[in-house]
C-alpha cells in the first residue's frame, strides 16, 4: 500500500483552556506528558498512522485553543472532522458546565456522519473530583456522545480511549477493514484462472445495454484456462 492509498480521518479536540486537550493528544501521539504546557494559539496539528482491523489509516489530530477569542473559528475547524472530542476537567465543575456550549457547537452543524466523544480528563485528581462519572455519562447519553475518562498526566486510559472506544466506532461507521470486503477479495482470488463465457458474446448487439438485460435466457459456462487451450 502506498502513502496515497492510506485513508485520512480528522480528529479535533474541543474544550475550555487548561482542561488538558494538548496533553491528551501528546500522550496519545508520542506517549509523553509535559507539566508546563504553553496555551495553544489558534490550532495545533499532528498526524499518526494506526491500524484498525489490519487496515492502516492516518489520523489527522487537531488541537484547538480554548480561549474565548478563538471560539468563533470553531465551526470552520469542525465542519469536516470525522471524530469530535469534547474534553473537560473532572476537578473543574465549570469546565463540565461549559461542555454544553461545545456540544451545541458540534450539533448545530448537523454532522450525522461524525463520531462525537465526551472525555473527562485528570482522573489522577480523584480526591478533587467535582464531576461524577454518572452525571457525565448521563449527559453524554442525552447528547448522543460516546464517553470515557482518562489521565493525560499518568497515561491511564488514554490509549484505551482510542483502541476501545473510538477505533471500534470508526470501524463500524466508516467500514474500516470491512469483513465483507475481505471475503470478496478472497472470493476473487479463488476465481483467478477461470474464464466465464457467455453464449451471446458473439452477437454484435446486446439488448439492455452493457449488462445484457435482454429477455432471452443466457447460459454461462465455466471453463478453466487449461480446458480452453485444449
Architecture blueprint of SSEs:
Blueprint lengths: L6 E9 L5 H10 L12 E10 L2 E10 L9 H5 L4 E7 L3 H5 L1 H9 L7 E7 L11 H11 L2 E4 L8 H17 L4 H12 L3 E5 L21 E5 H5 L1
Parallel strand pairs: 1-3, 1-4, 4-5, 5-6
Antiparallel strand pairs: 2-3, 7-8
By secondary-structure content and strand pairing, the structural class works out as alpha/beta
- What is the tally of beta strands? 8
Q: Looking at the structure, what is the overall shape?
A: globular
Q: Secondary-structure element order, as H and E?
A: EHEEHEHHEHEHHEEH
Strand order of the largest sheet: 2-3-1-4-5-6
Uncertain stretches of 5 or more adjacent residues: 190-230
Mean pLDDT: 79
Question: Can you walk me through this structure?
Answer:
Helices cover 32% and strands 25% of the residues. Strand 5, helix 5 and strand 6 form a beta-alpha-beta unit. A 6-stranded mixed sheet has the order 2-3-1-4-5-6, with helices on both faces. A two-stranded antiparallel ribbon has the order 7-8. The protein is globular. The chain is built from 8 helices and 8 strands.
Amino acid at each position: 500500500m502506498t502513502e496515497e492509498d492510506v485513508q485520512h480521518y480528522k480528529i479535533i479536540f474541543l474544550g475550555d483552556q487548561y482542561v488538558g486537550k494538548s496533553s491528551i493528544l501528546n500522550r496519545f501521539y508520542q506517549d509523553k506528558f509535559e507539566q508546563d504546557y504553553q496555551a495553544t494559539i489558534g490550532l495545533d496539528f499532528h498526524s499518526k498512522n494506526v491500524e484498525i482491523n489490519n487496515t492502516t489509516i492516518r489520523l489527522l489530530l487537531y488541537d484547538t485553543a480554548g480561549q474565548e477569542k478563538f471560539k468563533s473559528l470553531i465551526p470552520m475547524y469542525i465542519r469536516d472532522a470525522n471524530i469530535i472530542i469534547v474534553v473537560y476537567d473532572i476537578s473543574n465543575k465549570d469546565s463540565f458546565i461549559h461542555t454544553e456550549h461545545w456540544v451545541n457547537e458540534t450539533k448545530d452543524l448537523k454532522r450525522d456522519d461524525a463520531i462525537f466523544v465526551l472525555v473527562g480528563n485528570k482522573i489522577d485528581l480523584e480526591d478533587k473530583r467535582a464531576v461524577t462519572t454518572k452525571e457525565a455519562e448521563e449527559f453524554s447519553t442525552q447528547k448522543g456522545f460516546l464517553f470515557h475518562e482518562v489521565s493525560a498526566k499518568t497515561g491511564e486510559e488514554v490509549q484505551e480511549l482510542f483502541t476501545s472506544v473510538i477505533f471500534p466506532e470508526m470501524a463500524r461507521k466508516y467500514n474500516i477493514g470491512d469483513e465483507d470486503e475481505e471475503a470478496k477479495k478472497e472470493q476473487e482470488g479463488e476465481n483467478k484462472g477461470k474464464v466465464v463465457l457467455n453464449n451471446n458474446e458473439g452477437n454484435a448487439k446486446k439488448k439492455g445495454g452493457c449488462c445484457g438485460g435482454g429477455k432471452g435466457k443466457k447460459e454461462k459456462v465455466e471453463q478453466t484456462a487449461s480446458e480452453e487451450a485444449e
